[in-house]
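re: that complex we talked abt at group meeting.

here r the seqs, copy pasted straight from the sheet so there may be weird spacing, ignore it
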Amino acid sequence: MFSETIELRGHIIDSLILPKVLDEILRAGGSFKIHQIKIGQQRVDQSFARIEVSGPTHETLDELVLRLRQHGAEVVEKADVQLASAPADGVFPANFYVTTNQQTFITLDGKEIEVRPAIMDSAIAVDGASQRATAVKFYEVRKGMKIVVGHQGIRVAPIQRSTARTEVFEFTSNVSIEQPKSAVIREMARELKRARETGGKILVVTGPAVVHTGGAEHLERLIEWGYVDLLFAGNALAMRDIENVLFGKPRRMNLDRGSLDDEGHENHIRAINAMREAGSIARAVEIGVLQRGIMCSCVRHGVEFVLAGSIRDDGPLPDVITDAIEAQKAMREKITGVTIALMMGTMLHSLAVENLLPANVKTFCIDINPVSVSKLTERGRFQAVGLVTDVEAFLRELTDCLAKLDAASARDGGKA
Amino acid sequence: MRELLLCPPDHYGIEYEINPWMSRARGAEAALAQKQWKDLRATLSKLDCKIELVTPQPKLPDMVFTANAGLAVGKKFIPSNFRHKERAGEAPHFSRWMEEHGYQISWLPEDYYFEGEGDALFVGDALFCGYKFRSDIKSHRAVADILGCLVISVELVDPRFYHLDTCFCPLPEGGAVWFPAAFDEYGQRAIREHVPELVDVVPEEAAHFSCNAVVLERDIVLPEGAPQLMTTLRECGYRCHELPMTEFLKAGGACKCLTMFLPQRSAVPNAH
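got the structure back, here u go
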């Protein structure tokens, strides 16, 4: 949203100019925030209002403000941001502005420009020539870059909390193991379906727990049905998934029998070797070495994945990016356009992704550990919902709900 | 005795087009215009008004419409800042006359358009001001600052009724005659909230500029073509004096446009 601040003065209450201006803003598809209002006490006293007017585009806002000027609105000139040069590569100037994950605008030469991407814990680099404002991490800053300092000329547009009664985000105030899980999962399923139908992008962040708990087949189904557009994970998830497919025994545990197998401890190493021999997971699928499982489904259905490495990894698999900064860059590149993030059974990886997401992305956090869910949902994100539950149980119920929803829409579609 | 400012129509004519009524192809007949104006002057004199005259100036044909000279309240005079350059030349003549007659002149900032009594009429203690076609709403605030009174700004939406006095006419005792469709819905609501007794004019009669009337206590001088309104006003105890105004209607004016009160109010109501 783009915004301007206007001021109204005069007998704006008796003349109904204030309600007229506010109605006109809403009719034009804009919104307003009254920053200050002073109402005259005597009949002859004039009143005053300072109002922030927002519109979806520069053009609609300009047209709207032009009309409001006819009713006496005066536009308050905005102060420009203050800039300082980065003193060295990888170092921000003193008093640099630290971004949040909310949509942010800066005023440059009297005009508002949006800072992209909306990513937290970054600084804002400004290119005056191209009138571009970019959120930059330490590793991206170069000596001499113009960086925003102080708070002047910065506007943060917080996401409004949804007021729709049916939204799953109604449940977000508490993370409790006593939540009505089925109802929450049903709502999550509706959200996912809505995202799939309206061109949203669904990101799944998950760890090996999805395989250990036996939830892999449900996740495979989600991928097959088109409910996953992007997968972020570590070496462990892919390794356990591939081990499970190739040997049926991840982590020495036979999932069908629920018992431990002899010699199972070496299977994951053999699985990694098979992938290294093929050259990549995609190649392993191509030559028929890997024929099912989460990673195989991703390859077959064109779901992009980023596997980020860690110090405790075995192998790693050939697809794993072992440079943490390179991995973060890869994730940032692919994150554009994500509307829903489904984070399951991996606290640290989820926190890392959470730090990269703009505030308007809806997140579902599922973990058996209440601490993980709390950590993820209590990060100032309005549109986050947490569920304390087993990942397999969650995925089983979610896929059931989605199957029913899809069947229902197929029926309705048939009738129509 | 009320004092009124008039300007003889010696240089009157349709020489440009700045409202939907004006058409250079349909000029005013000079002799007939003179006669209609003289009849107005005579009628107002008969109703015990003192008529003052400002000298007409060549090349300023609309100077005859003295309601747009400015706004006089007590001994204060706020001259107009005309929106159209065609009329801007009238302002110094009017302000000089007012100054010579003892008025204290309060100029508005140059970029605030304001067309005087044509867009500013008192009802009770509130000054109703029209905006959009000629006056700016910004000027209303400045007028409120100068006079220290309540100003109700109303938006005009029909270009045929481009000044407030073409669609709104205050009556004594806080009422008014008006043509509601000339205002936007907020203007209509504001008027209804602040004016207790409203007499609606039907569209056919409004088109004859029936609201453009000079009200002198129980006497109302208005253009011909408003039989329904006259019946209503007579039932309310007013004496109506209708006059032919055809030649001035061609320029979008009638009885009220041709007169300005000296002053409209003798004192600022509820002044600080």
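couple things i noticed - The radius of gyration of chain B is 17 Å. The longest strand of chain B covers residues 126-131.
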